[in-house]
Protein backbone atom coordinates (compact mmCIF):
# COMPACT_ATOMS: atom_id res chain seq x y z
CA UNK A 1 0.00 0.00 0.00
CA UNK A 2 1.35 3.41 -0.94
CA UNK A 3 1.30 5.99 1.82
CA UNK A 4 1.99 9.49 0.41
CA UNK A 5 2.71 10.88 3.86
CA UNK A 6 5.75 8.61 4.02
CA UNK A 7 7.26 9.88 0.74
CA UNK A 8 10.81 11.15 1.10
CA UNK A 9 11.31 13.95 -1.41
CA UNK A 10 15.07 13.94 -0.80
CA UNK A 11 15.32 10.51 -2.41
CA UNK A 12 13.57 11.68 -5.56
CA UNK A 13 15.64 14.86 -5.77
CA UNK A 14 18.91 12.97 -5.39
CA UNK A 15 18.04 10.02 -7.59
CA UNK A 16 21.05 8.73 -9.51
CA UNK A 17 21.33 9.27 -13.24
CA UNK A 18 21.02 6.38 -15.66
CA UNK A 19 22.94 5.74 -18.86
CA UNK A 20 22.64 3.99 -22.20
CA UNK A 21 25.62 2.32 -23.84
CA UNK A 22 26.69 3.93 -27.09
CA UNK A 23 29.28 3.34 -29.77
CA UNK A 24 32.87 2.86 -28.71
CA UNK A 25 31.89 2.10 -25.12
CA UNK A 26 30.66 5.64 -24.51
CA UNK A 27 27.70 6.36 -22.26
CA UNK A 28 24.80 8.69 -22.96
CA UNK A 29 22.41 9.81 -20.24
CA UNK A 30 18.97 8.19 -20.33
CA UNK A 31 15.75 9.85 -19.36
CA UNK A 32 13.90 8.45 -16.38
CA UNK A 33 11.02 6.15 -17.31
CA UNK A 34 8.01 5.74 -15.07
CA UNK A 35 6.09 2.47 -15.19
CA UNK A 36 2.45 3.25 -14.51
CA UNK A 37 1.63 -0.27 -13.30
CA UNK A 38 2.00 -0.20 -9.50
CA UNK A 39 4.11 -1.49 -7.86
CA UNK A 40 6.46 -2.15 -10.80
CA UNK A 41 8.97 0.66 -10.93
CA UNK A 42 7.04 2.56 -8.31
CA UNK A 43 9.53 2.35 -5.46
CA UNK A 44 12.46 4.73 -5.10
CA UNK A 45 14.75 4.14 -2.16
CA UNK A 46 18.35 3.84 -1.05
CA UNK A 47 20.74 0.92 -1.34
CA UNK A 48 21.01 0.91 2.45
CA UNK A 49 17.26 0.45 2.88
CA UNK A 50 17.29 -2.49 0.46
CA UNK A 51 20.24 -4.00 2.32
CA UNK A 52 18.33 -3.75 5.61
CA UNK A 53 15.39 -5.53 3.99
CA UNK A 54 17.64 -8.35 2.75
CA UNK A 55 19.29 -8.61 6.17
CA UNK A 56 15.89 -8.97 7.84
CA UNK A 57 14.96 -11.79 5.44
CA UNK A 58 18.02 -13.88 6.31
CA UNK A 59 17.88 -13.30 10.05
CA UNK A 60 17.51 -16.59 11.98
CA UNK A 61 13.95 -17.34 13.04
CA UNK A 62 15.07 -17.17 16.66
CA UNK A 63 15.83 -13.47 16.20
CA UNK A 64 13.00 -10.99 16.24
CA UNK A 65 12.43 -9.24 12.92
CA UNK A 66 10.29 -6.23 12.12
CA UNK A 67 9.00 -7.90 8.94
CA UNK A 68 6.66 -10.46 10.52
CA UNK A 69 4.60 -10.81 13.65
CA UNK A 70 5.09 -14.59 13.78
CA UNK A 71 8.47 -16.27 13.31
CA UNK A 72 7.16 -19.17 11.18
CA UNK A 73 5.96 -16.70 8.54
CA UNK A 74 9.56 -16.17 7.46
CA UNK A 75 10.23 -19.86 6.81
CA UNK A 76 6.91 -20.19 4.99
CA UNK A 77 7.73 -17.19 2.78
CA UNK A 78 11.07 -18.69 1.76
CA UNK A 79 9.70 -22.18 1.08
CA UNK A 80 8.88 -23.43 -2.42
CA UNK A 81 5.33 -22.53 -3.41
CA UNK A 82 5.48 -23.78 -7.01
CA UNK A 83 7.80 -25.83 -9.18
CA UNK A 84 6.98 -27.14 -12.67
CA UNK A 85 9.00 -30.31 -12.08
CA UNK A 86 11.04 -31.86 -9.30
CA UNK A 87 14.58 -30.52 -9.43
CA UNK A 88 13.57 -27.52 -11.56
CA UNK A 89 13.79 -24.03 -9.99
CA UNK A 90 10.38 -22.65 -9.13
CA UNK A 91 8.82 -19.92 -7.01
CA UNK A 92 8.93 -19.17 -3.32
CA UNK A 93 6.02 -16.78 -2.72
CA UNK A 94 7.35 -13.99 -4.95
CA UNK A 95 11.00 -15.03 -4.97
CA UNK A 96 12.55 -16.95 -7.86
CA UNK A 97 14.60 -19.98 -6.95
CA UNK A 98 18.17 -19.88 -8.19
CA UNK A 99 19.75 -22.87 -9.92
CA UNK A 100 23.08 -22.67 -8.11
CA UNK A 101 25.44 -24.56 -5.87
CA UNK A 102 23.28 -23.40 -2.96
CA UNK A 103 19.54 -22.82 -2.83
CA UNK A 104 19.22 -19.14 -3.49
CA UNK A 105 16.11 -16.98 -3.70
CA UNK A 106 16.16 -13.86 -5.79
CA UNK A 107 14.00 -11.06 -7.08
CA UNK A 108 15.04 -8.63 -9.76
CA UNK A 109 13.54 -5.76 -11.66
CA UNK A 110 14.50 -3.22 -14.24
CA UNK A 111 13.39 -0.33 -16.37
CA UNK A 112 15.27 0.90 -19.44
CA UNK A 113 18.48 1.83 -17.63
CA UNK A 114 17.97 0.98 -13.95
CA UNK A 115 18.28 -2.58 -12.67
CA UNK A 116 18.35 -4.36 -9.35
CA UNK A 117 18.89 -7.97 -8.41
CA UNK A 118 18.68 -9.24 -4.85
CA UNK A 119 19.53 -12.78 -3.86
CA UNK A 120 19.49 -14.42 -0.46
CA UNK A 121 20.85 -17.81 0.59
CA UNK A 122 18.87 -18.58 3.78
CA UNK A 123 20.93 -21.65 4.72
CA UNK A 124 24.13 -19.58 4.85
CA UNK A 125 22.59 -16.32 6.09
CA UNK A 126 24.06 -14.73 2.99
CA UNK A 127 22.63 -11.99 0.78
CA UNK A 128 23.86 -9.99 -2.18
CA UNK A 129 22.32 -7.02 -3.96
CA UNK A 130 23.47 -5.74 -7.34
CA UNK A 131 22.28 -2.31 -8.46
CA UNK A 132 23.12 -0.81 -11.85
CA UNK A 133 22.30 2.45 -13.60
CA UNK A 134 23.11 1.43 -17.16
CA UNK A 135 21.41 -0.51 -19.94
CA UNK A 136 22.68 -3.90 -21.22
CA UNK A 137 23.54 -4.93 -17.67
CA UNK A 138 22.55 -8.61 -17.52
CA UNK A 139 26.14 -9.81 -17.40
CA UNK A 140 26.57 -7.72 -14.25
CA UNK A 141 23.32 -8.30 -12.37
CA UNK A 142 23.31 -12.04 -13.06
CA UNK A 143 26.98 -12.69 -13.79
CA UNK A 144 28.02 -11.51 -10.33
CA UNK A 145 25.39 -13.79 -8.80
CA UNK A 146 26.91 -16.79 -10.56
CA UNK A 147 30.38 -15.89 -9.32
CA UNK A 148 29.41 -15.21 -5.70
CA UNK A 149 26.73 -17.86 -5.14
CA UNK A 150 28.08 -20.48 -7.54
CA UNK A 151 26.51 -22.22 -10.53
CA UNK A 152 24.68 -25.49 -10.14
CA UNK A 153 26.19 -28.78 -11.24
CA UNK A 154 25.11 -30.18 -14.61
CA UNK A 155 24.80 -33.93 -14.27
CA UNK A 156 23.50 -35.31 -17.56
CA UNK A 157 21.30 -38.38 -17.30
CA UNK A 158 21.22 -41.18 -19.85
CA UNK A 159 18.44 -42.38 -22.18
CA UNK A 160 16.85 -38.96 -22.50
CA UNK A 161 13.97 -38.10 -24.88
CA UNK A 162 14.91 -36.80 -28.32
CA UNK A 163 15.37 -33.05 -28.54
CA UNK A 164 13.22 -33.06 -31.68
CA UNK A 165 10.14 -33.41 -29.42
CA UNK A 166 10.55 -29.84 -28.14
CA UNK A 167 11.05 -28.18 -31.52
CA UNK A 168 8.62 -25.42 -32.39
CA UNK A 169 7.76 -21.74 -32.15
CA UNK A 170 6.68 -20.24 -28.84
CA UNK A 171 5.34 -16.96 -27.46
CA UNK A 172 6.04 -15.56 -24.03
CA UNK A 173 3.10 -16.00 -21.67
CA UNK A 174 4.29 -12.90 -19.81
CA UNK A 175 2.80 -10.45 -22.26
CA UNK A 176 -0.08 -8.08 -22.94
CA UNK A 177 -3.09 -10.00 -24.25
CA UNK A 178 -5.50 -7.11 -24.83
CA UNK A 179 -4.78 -4.00 -26.85
CA UNK A 180 -2.29 -3.22 -29.60
CA UNK A 181 0.64 -4.23 -27.37
CA UNK A 182 -0.30 -7.89 -27.93
CA UNK A 183 1.35 -7.54 -31.35
CA UNK A 184 4.77 -7.17 -29.73
CA UNK A 185 4.90 -10.83 -28.67
CA UNK A 186 4.54 -11.96 -32.28
CA UNK A 187 7.52 -9.81 -33.24
CA UNK A 188 9.67 -11.63 -30.66
CA UNK A 189 8.90 -15.30 -31.22
CA UNK A 190 11.05 -17.96 -29.58
CA UNK A 191 12.16 -20.51 -32.16
CA UNK A 192 13.48 -23.86 -30.90
CA UNK A 193 15.34 -26.28 -33.19
CA UNK A 194 17.20 -29.46 -32.28
CA UNK A 195 20.95 -29.65 -32.94
CA UNK A 196 21.26 -33.30 -31.96
CA UNK A 197 19.43 -35.70 -29.65
CA UNK A 198 20.36 -33.72 -26.51
CA UNK A 199 20.95 -30.13 -27.63
CA UNK A 200 18.69 -27.39 -28.94
CA UNK A 201 19.30 -24.00 -30.57
CA UNK A 202 17.13 -21.05 -29.54
CA UNK A 203 16.49 -17.87 -31.49
CA UNK A 204 14.63 -14.98 -29.85
CA UNK A 205 14.31 -11.99 -32.19
CA UNK A 206 17.87 -12.51 -33.41
CA UNK A 207 19.38 -13.40 -30.03
CA UNK A 208 20.72 -16.95 -30.01
CA UNK A 209 21.67 -19.58 -27.43
CA UNK A 210 22.37 -23.29 -27.07
CA UNK A 211 20.84 -25.48 -24.36
CA UNK A 212 21.67 -29.05 -23.35
CA UNK A 213 19.25 -31.60 -21.89
CA UNK A 214 20.27 -32.77 -18.41
CA UNK A 215 17.16 -34.72 -17.40
CA UNK A 216 13.89 -35.55 -19.20
CA UNK A 217 12.73 -32.32 -20.89
CA UNK A 218 14.94 -30.17 -18.64
CA UNK A 219 17.42 -28.06 -20.60
CA UNK A 220 20.19 -25.87 -19.20
CA UNK A 221 21.98 -22.99 -20.86
CA UNK A 222 25.24 -24.01 -22.50
CA UNK A 223 26.13 -20.68 -24.08
CA UNK A 224 24.67 -17.74 -25.94
CA UNK A 225 23.59 -14.11 -25.72
CA UNK A 226 23.17 -12.44 -22.33
CA UNK A 227 19.40 -12.14 -22.73
CA UNK A 228 19.07 -15.88 -21.99
CA UNK A 229 21.01 -15.77 -18.69
CA UNK A 230 17.93 -15.19 -16.46
CA UNK A 231 16.20 -18.19 -18.07
CA UNK A 232 19.15 -20.55 -17.82
CA UNK A 233 16.90 -23.53 -17.02
CA UNK A 234 13.96 -24.54 -19.21
CA UNK A 235 11.44 -27.29 -18.63
CA UNK A 236 9.30 -28.38 -21.59
CA UNK A 237 5.78 -29.63 -20.86
CA UNK A 238 5.35 -32.43 -23.41
CA UNK A 239 2.12 -34.23 -24.22
CA UNK A 240 2.06 -37.07 -26.79
CA UNK A 241 5.60 -36.19 -27.90
CA UNK A 242 4.61 -32.58 -28.56
CA UNK A 243 5.75 -29.63 -26.44
CA UNK A 244 2.90 -27.36 -25.34
CA UNK A 245 4.62 -25.05 -22.88
CA UNK A 246 8.04 -24.01 -21.58
CA UNK A 247 8.56 -23.14 -17.92
CA UNK A 248 11.50 -20.92 -16.99
CA UNK A 249 12.48 -19.06 -13.87
CA UNK A 250 11.03 -15.72 -14.94
CA UNK A 251 8.39 -16.42 -17.56
CA UNK A 252 6.66 -19.28 -19.28
CA UNK A 253 6.33 -19.70 -23.03
CA UNK A 254 3.34 -21.21 -24.79
CA UNK A 255 3.07 -22.77 -28.22
CA UNK A 256 2.38 -20.37 -31.08
CA UNK A 257 -1.37 -19.82 -31.34
CA UNK A 258 -1.39 -18.49 -34.91
CA UNK A 259 -0.25 -20.34 -38.03
CA UNK A 260 2.71 -19.18 -40.09
CA UNK A 261 0.53 -18.58 -43.20
CA UNK A 262 -1.79 -16.35 -41.13
CA UNK A 263 1.16 -14.27 -39.87
CA UNK A 264 2.66 -13.96 -43.36
CA UNK A 265 -0.70 -12.92 -44.81
CA UNK A 266 -1.11 -10.36 -42.00
CA UNK A 267 2.34 -8.95 -42.75
CA UNK A 268 1.64 -8.87 -46.48
CA UNK A 269 -1.67 -7.08 -45.96
CA UNK A 270 -0.07 -4.53 -43.64
CA UNK A 271 2.57 -3.73 -46.26
CA UNK A 272 -0.17 -3.42 -48.90
CA UNK A 273 -2.25 -1.06 -46.73
CA UNK A 274 0.75 1.18 -46.06
CA UNK A 275 1.83 1.34 -49.71
CA UNK A 276 -1.69 1.76 -51.11
CA UNK A 277 -2.98 4.42 -48.74
CA UNK A 278 0.27 6.41 -48.59
CA UNK A 279 0.57 6.58 -52.39
CA UNK A 280 -3.13 6.97 -53.27
CA UNK A 281 -3.44 10.64 -52.16
CA UNK A 282 -0.84 11.64 -54.74
CA UNK A 283 -2.79 9.75 -57.41
CA UNK A 284 -5.95 11.61 -56.35
CA UNK A 285 -4.15 14.94 -56.67
CA UNK A 286 -3.01 14.11 -60.21
CA UNK A 287 -6.51 12.96 -61.24
CA UNK A 288 -8.11 16.06 -59.72
CA UNK A 289 -5.63 18.25 -61.63
CA UNK A 290 -6.47 16.49 -64.90
CA UNK A 291 -10.23 16.84 -64.32
CA UNK A 292 -9.77 20.53 -63.64
CA UNK A 293 -7.81 21.05 -66.82
CA UNK A 294 -10.48 19.21 -68.81
CA UNK A 295 -13.19 21.12 -66.93
CA UNK A 296 -14.91 17.88 -65.96
CA UNK A 297 -17.44 17.87 -63.16
CA UNK A 298 -16.55 15.74 -60.14
CA UNK A 299 -19.18 13.07 -59.52
CA UNK A 300 -20.47 12.41 -55.99
CA UNK A 301 -19.09 8.86 -56.15
CA UNK A 302 -15.65 10.28 -56.98
CA UNK A 303 -15.84 12.64 -54.00
CA UNK A 304 -16.75 9.83 -51.61
CA UNK A 305 -13.96 7.69 -53.05
CA UNK A 306 -11.60 10.55 -52.22
CA UNK A 307 -12.92 10.76 -48.66
CA UNK A 308 -12.57 6.98 -48.28
CA UNK A 309 -9.00 7.07 -49.58
CA UNK A 310 -7.97 9.95 -47.34
CA UNK A 311 -9.53 8.34 -44.25
CA UNK A 312 -7.52 5.20 -45.05
CA UNK A 313 -4.41 7.35 -45.41
CA UNK A 314 -5.14 8.97 -42.04
CA UNK A 315 -5.45 5.50 -40.47
CA UNK A 316 -2.15 4.40 -42.02
CA UNK A 317 -0.31 7.54 -40.87
CA UNK A 318 -1.83 7.22 -37.39
CA UNK A 319 -0.64 3.61 -37.08
CA UNK A 320 2.86 4.52 -38.33
CA UNK A 321 3.11 7.35 -35.80
CA UNK A 322 1.89 5.06 -33.01
CA UNK A 323 4.58 2.49 -33.89
CA UNK A 324 7.34 5.12 -34.13
CA UNK A 325 6.38 6.69 -30.80
CA UNK A 326 6.28 3.32 -29.01
CA UNK A 327 9.63 2.23 -30.46
CA UNK A 328 11.28 5.52 -29.47
CA UNK A 329 9.91 5.30 -25.91
CA UNK A 330 8.56 1.83 -25.04
CA UNK A 331 7.25 2.79 -21.60
CA UNK A 332 4.83 5.51 -22.60
CA UNK A 333 1.71 5.88 -20.49
CA UNK A 334 -1.71 4.99 -21.87
CA UNK A 335 -2.78 8.64 -21.78
CA UNK A 336 0.04 9.49 -24.20
CA UNK A 337 -1.34 7.01 -26.75
CA UNK A 338 -5.04 7.78 -26.22
CA UNK A 339 -5.14 10.29 -29.08
CA UNK A 340 -4.05 7.56 -31.52
CA UNK A 341 -6.85 5.23 -30.40
CA UNK A 342 -9.45 8.00 -30.70
CA UNK A 343 -8.08 8.74 -34.17
CA UNK A 344 -8.47 5.10 -35.18
CA UNK A 345 -12.13 5.15 -34.14
CA UNK A 346 -12.84 8.46 -35.91
CA UNK A 347 -11.16 7.50 -39.18
CA UNK A 348 -12.79 4.07 -39.11
CA UNK A 349 -16.27 5.59 -38.79
CA UNK A 350 -15.51 7.98 -41.66
CA UNK A 351 -14.28 5.05 -43.78
CA UNK A 352 -17.42 3.00 -43.14
CA UNK A 353 -19.70 5.95 -43.92
CA UNK A 354 -17.72 6.59 -47.10
CA UNK A 355 -18.10 2.97 -48.24
CA UNK A 356 -21.88 3.16 -47.77
CA UNK A 357 -22.16 6.51 -49.57
CA UNK A 358 -19.94 5.30 -52.41
CA UNK A 359 -22.22 2.31 -52.95
CA UNK A 360 -25.30 4.58 -52.94
CA UNK A 361 -23.90 7.02 -55.52
CA UNK A 362 -22.29 4.23 -57.58
CA UNK A 363 -25.59 3.48 -59.32
CA UNK A 364 -26.24 7.14 -60.12
CA UNK A 365 -22.81 7.85 -61.60
CA UNK A 366 -21.48 7.18 -65.08
CA UNK A 367 -18.12 5.61 -64.28
CA UNK A 368 -15.42 4.34 -66.57
CA UNK A 369 -14.05 0.82 -66.31
CA UNK A 370 -10.86 2.04 -64.59
CA UNK A 371 -12.83 4.16 -62.13
CA UNK A 372 -14.91 1.14 -61.14
CA UNK A 373 -11.76 -0.97 -60.65
CA UNK A 374 -10.13 1.77 -58.58
CA UNK A 375 -13.17 2.38 -56.39
CA UNK A 376 -13.68 -1.35 -55.76
CA UNK A 377 -10.00 -1.69 -54.86
CA UNK A 378 -10.26 1.20 -52.40
CA UNK A 379 -13.40 -0.25 -50.79
CA UNK A 380 -11.90 -3.72 -50.40
CA UNK A 381 -8.60 -2.32 -49.08
CA UNK A 382 -10.43 -0.13 -46.54
CA UNK A 383 -12.64 -2.95 -45.27
CA UNK A 384 -9.67 -5.33 -45.00
CA UNK A 385 -7.64 -2.62 -43.24
CA UNK A 386 -10.38 -2.15 -40.63
CA UNK A 387 -10.65 -5.93 -40.18
CA UNK A 388 -6.86 -6.08 -39.72
CA UNK A 389 -7.03 -3.35 -37.07
CA UNK A 390 -9.78 -5.23 -35.22
CA UNK A 391 -7.93 -8.57 -35.32
CA UNK A 392 -4.72 -7.02 -33.97
CA UNK A 393 -6.63 -4.89 -31.42
CA UNK A 394 -5.33 -1.54 -32.63
CA UNK A 395 -8.23 0.35 -31.07
CA UNK A 396 -6.99 0.13 -27.47
TrEMBL record:
Keyword set, alphabetical order: Membrane, Transmembrane, Transmembrane helix
Transmembrane segments: 262-290, 302-326, 338-361, 373-395
This protein's name: Beta-lactamase-related domain-containing protein
Organism: Oceanobacillus indicireducens
Ranges of residues in domain Beta-lactamase-related: 33-136
Pfam families xrefs: Beta-lactamase
Amino acid sequence: MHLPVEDNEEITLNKGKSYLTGEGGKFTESESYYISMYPSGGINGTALDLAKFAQALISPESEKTSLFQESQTQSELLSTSYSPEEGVPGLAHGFWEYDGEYRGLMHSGNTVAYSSNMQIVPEDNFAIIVLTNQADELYLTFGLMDELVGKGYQTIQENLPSASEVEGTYLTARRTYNGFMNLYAYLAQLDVQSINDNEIALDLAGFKATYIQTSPYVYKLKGGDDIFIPNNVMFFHVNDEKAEQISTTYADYVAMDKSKPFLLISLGLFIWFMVYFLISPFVLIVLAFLRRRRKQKTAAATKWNGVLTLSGTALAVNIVLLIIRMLSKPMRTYSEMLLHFIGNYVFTVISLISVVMLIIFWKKASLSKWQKVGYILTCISSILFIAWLIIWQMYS
